[in-house]
Amino acid sequence: MSASLYHVLLLGAALIAGAVVPFQSGSNAMLGRMLGHPLWATVTSLSVSLLAVIPLLFLFRAPLPKLEHALQAPWWVWTGGLSGVIFITAALLITPRLGATGFMISAIAGQILVAMLIDHFGLMGLPVKEVNLGRVLGVMMIFGGVMVVQKFTP
């Protein structure tokens, strides 16, 4: 498989992964209303995630985790779970007020801004991808899009 085809497949997989997120926001928002409190929806969502991934561990014959290595890792490796809680809770609180589009476009804009900083400084063990004029203009266009969408959303 050529490198360019592989790259296109990865971009397609990322597009599909991103496409399911608005459904997560909407379903969790409804679940929060049905359960009587948004935090119960967060707990339920994360519990369903755990139940969904356990069979995959067996299917892919994943080896047991190397906890001794994880315990020696930098402190920030543990923030992924906290980030998930923040995102899920924010989504189920904000989506009913802004709508799926308003929430998602704002969340994506925040993700892109922070991702660009992570890339620029090579944080979290990732390779450095410096900020340049093209990347800044692209992000500015995204933020402009956020403003246009919000302006024309009743």
Name the overall outline.
globular
Q: Helical proportion?
A: over 70%
Radius of gyration, whole Å:
18 Å
Number of helices: 5
Q: What is the tally of beta strands? A: 0
Mean pLDDT rating:
90
**Secondary-structure element sequence?**
HHHHH
In short:
It is built from five helices and no strands.
Account of the protein in words:
By secondary structure, the chain is an all-alpha fold. It is 79% helix and 0% strand. The chain has helices at 3-35, 38-59, 67-70, 79-121, 133-151. 9% of the residues are buried. The mean pLDDT is 90.
Topology:
Blueprint: H1 3-35, H2 38-59, H3 67-70, H4 79-121, H5 133-151
Keywords for this structure?
single chain; 154 residues; mainly alpha
